[in-house]
Description:
about 25% helix, Rossmann fold, 15 strands, five-stranded parallel sheet, about 25% strand, about 375 residues, alpha/beta
Amino acid sequence: MVKKCLNCGEVKTQSILNFGSIPITSLLSNEESFPLNYGKCEKCFVVFTINSLPQNILYGKDYNFFSSTSNAYIEYTKKIIETIESIVNINECDVLEIGCNDGVLMHQIESKVKSVVGIDPFFLATESFDDNNKNATIINDYFNNDAVKNYNLNEKFDVVIVNNVITHVDDVFDFIKSLSLVVKKNGIIYFEMCDYKKVIENDRFDYFYHGVTNLILPNQIERLLKGFECIKDYGFDGFDPFSNKFILQKTNSNIENYNFPKDQINSAQLKLDSWCKKIDIFFNNLSNFKKVVGYGANSKSGIVFALSPIAKQKIDVILDINLNKHNKIISGSSVQIKHIDRYDISDIDYIILFASHIFEEVEHALTIRGYTGKLLMMDL
């Protein structure tokens, strides 16, 4: 349990959001439930989980996310590289990717740069990295101040890529301090991160689960990363519709005072309660259809099932393209995951997509397999 804010030391927190006790939906076939509560520091306004789970549980052997299972994401990494190339001469750069998973982006960028290093704690992904190019190296570890020292990463990199990672780290302030250390002078950090203020404003509480350990906002990053300034802000132009994309450059300008941002996350409990009711209504409206299944995103579907018994009653199967998930169970439920090629989709009336940002990819995958029913997103 966090007893004080790790940023400013303040001990007072304001309750922002309480999901109650829910399963770890980022894992599979797990029955245990744990509290998921968020509090906001009353001094610096950073929002964090009050009861954090150990990182080795969240990203250990039972974690199951592999970037390479999404063709849409593989194609998107090319856009990330194009964005970086528009800012720097990438051929002369040493690159670090934090949260590299199984190395999808590293494979795309390694032939273009002097060297690329990836770091990620999920060993099942990092050990699957198959590469004969001596340009690329993967470190199986967490990125923090200890890693900077242990692997001699201080001021080694011209480009650092932080793609949808920072809201999942246990100690966000140690993470930010470590970021400031590894970048060379005039080097850049490519950031892509979920803006949870926008998530809440749009009633998308399926974006919350154990593993989302802080709700730090993009504008707070620039204020906390002293000696950096934003040189490009692309707004919400990322892979996910709620991801903000921007680039910071290390200027080493002397910034003494931290100005607490006015833009912040306030209590959203009433919106969460309303969202749960809307989920029940949505799935009640599907009661006339005999065969309804879900598709993908066990974290998002898991939070829906945890908060809506009606949804859990209506859907007993989730389809997925990741063969590693076949026959596993959505945590806290009896909902089984089936690989799309090992399940008869011919008699399905509706497929509910729990990962709306890959709609086109899923629609294509279903079409080429002969699916003629409806593919829906939860319209709440």
